[in-house]
Design goal:
Layout (H helix, E strand, L loop, with lengths): L8 H14 L3 E3 L12 E3 L1 H9 L10
Antiparallel strand pairs: 1-2
Length: 63
């Protein structure tokens, strides 16, 4: 979140994380337990294609 310049976790979850899940860009690693403390998220193939198409690479600054 901090890399995106965001500080409000609820706003991040509602506007970025959940939207990305609904669009099929990311997926839960443990979909049967969405509130698990061990829950993580990974890019889907669709998410990887979007990153490739946008010429974005992890760690890239937007400045």
């Amino acid at each position: 979140m901090s890399k995106l310049g965001l500080t409000d976790e609820k706003h991040f979850r509602e506007h970025y994380q959940q939207t990305s899940i609904k669009l099929g860009l990311i997926e839960m690693t443990i979909p049967d337990k969405p509130t698990s403390s061990k829950q993580k998220y990974r890019l889907t193939e669709k998410g990887r294609q979007l990153l490739t198409a946008s010429n974005f690479s992890p760690g890239q600054s937007n400045e």
